[in-house]
Amino acid sequence: MRVSRTILFFLVLLAPVQVMARSVYVNDQLRVGVRPEPSQVVAPVGVVLTGMKLEVLAKKDTFIKIRTNDGLEGWIKNIYVTDKTPAILRLKDMNRKYQEVQKQLEDIEKTRAALEEANSILNDKIDTLKAQRAELQRNQAIQIVSSVKSVASGMQIVWLLISLILGLALGYFWHRHQSMKRLGGLRI
Q1: What's the CA gap between 11 and 5, in Å, rounded?
Q2: Is pTM, for the whole model, over 0.70?
Q3: Residue 33 falls within a domain, yes or no?
Q4: Other C-beta atoms within 10 Å of 44: how many?
Q5: pLDDT tens for residues 80-123?
Q6: What is the gyration radius of the CA atoms in the chain, in angstroms?
Q7: Range of the domain at 63
Q8: Which pLDDT score is estimated for 169?
Q9: Cα dist. 139→11, 128, 134, 143, 188 in Å?
Q10: At residue 34, what are phi and psi to the nearest 5 degrees?
Q11: Looking at residues 40-57, what average pLDDT do you find?
């Protein structure tokens, strides 16, 4: 019996600690009257608005005792609060995130425009370099053709001389052979 009383005593002590650690928000009902006692017949001492964060101090039946950030304490019906963030706060958070994303998008757009401009400039430089390369290749081709022509004209002279010498040598040997034939193999 004594052990069960001790356990019950600790449970009673721990129960408010668990309630106090919880935060709740006013539902999307816009205005809720805060009353000095957990009763609907007592006149409100203040008002809490949608989205206000409230600290839960105690629970009694369908009422919870709350404290606002401004220090207002009192009782409200627990049907007016939720553990979830209300839509108005989620909307404000989404709008803030939307503004951040819009700013990032603007920055990305500026970067894209700058990169497109740089790309255009680089493409123009590439086109200029390609034209210069084509001109250099044309000039090299002209130089090669002219050097081949000069080599070819030099080669023509060499072939002409070789042909002339070969023709003279063949003519000499042919004449000698014919003379030996006429003389019966006698050499001159």
Answers
A1: 10
A2: no
A3: yes
A4: 16
A5: 888 887 777 788 889 999 999 999 999 999 999 999 999 999 99
A6: 54
A7: 2-84
A8: 93
A9: 100, 17, 9, 6, 61
A10: -100, 125
A11: 86
Distance CA 23, CA 33 (A): 18
Distances (CA, A) of 14 to 7, 9, 10, 83, 146: 10, 9, 6, 20, 105
The domain total for the chain is 1
76: phi then psi, degrees, rounded to nearest 5: -135, 160
pLDDT digits (tens, 9 = 90+) for 112-130: 999 999 999 999 999 999 9
Task: Say if strands 46-49 and 53-60 run parallel, antiparallel, or are unpaired.
Answer: unpaired
In this structure, is residue 31 part of a structural domain?
Answer: yes
Find the range with the poorest average confidence among 24-28, 101-105, 124-128, 136-140: 24-28
Q: Residue 28 maps to which CATH number?
A: 2.30.30.40
Chain centroid to Cα 177, Å, comes to 94
**For residue 132, what pLDDT is reported?**
95
Q: Is residue 18 part of a domain?
A: yes
Closest by alpha carbon to 57, among 32, 86, 81? Answer: 81
Sequence letter at residue 113: A
Q: Is residue 30 one of the residues assigned to a domain?
A: yes
